[in-house]
Amino acid sequence: MSSDAIDQALAQSGHLPGGLLQVLHGIADRLGHIPAEAIGRVAAALNLSRAEVHGVVSFYHDFRSEPPGRHVLKLCRAEACQAMGSEALAGALERRLGCKFGETSPGGAVTLEPVYCLGNCAAAPRSCSTVSCAAASPASASTAWSTRSSPPRRSA
User: Fold this and answer.
1) CA dihedral 55, 3, 107, 138 (to 10 degrees)
2) Alpha-carbon distance 104 to 35, whole Å?
């Protein structure tokens, strides 16, 4: 399956000048991550070194080398959110989800990621999931994410 996704991304964008980012986004869109096998194949197809491709994959935080959980929860760890309690929220989330930042919870339900500014400091602390971005309190966010296998739904 990953071989097909790599081939499709290369066919779609590999011919573009400077197409490395487009190819990597194509792979990530299809698989949710950039598997190790893609590094060498993309490098060969684009006449780049493996180090160049790996450098781009490891530089951009939205590219990952392992599949994420079914849902990704990002919590702002910047100063404004820290001043409004994001560190307490971070600790509560880690305990409730059973994983640290950069890891996926047991069972693969949630990948917990740090982010440094979601651009709404007035409503700190901020979190953003695969469903929505919202202001969060330690109690509400950690309870919501620990008691369900899917993210909270938005109200209509």
Assistant:
1) 40
2) 17
CA angle 135, 139, 141 (to 5 degrees): 45
Residue 139 CB: number of other CB atoms within 10 A? Answer: 11
75 phi, psi to nearest 5 deg: -120, 130
pTM: 0.70
Which tokens is 136 given? Answer: 């969060």
Q: What is the mean pLDDT of the chain?
A: 86
Amino acid at 80: A
Report strand pairing: 110-115 vs 71-76.
parallel
CA distance 64 to 16: 23
Q: What is residue 38's predicted lDDT score, i.e. its pLDDT?
A: 97
Euclidean distance between the first and the last CA atom of the chain, given in angstroms as a whole number: 37
Give per-10-residue mean pLDDT for the chain (156 aa).
89 93 96 95 97 95 90 93 94 95 93 91 88 62 46 41
CA 13 to chain centre: 22
pLDDT of residue 147: 41
Cβ partners under 8 Å of residue 50, min gap 6: 39, 40, 43
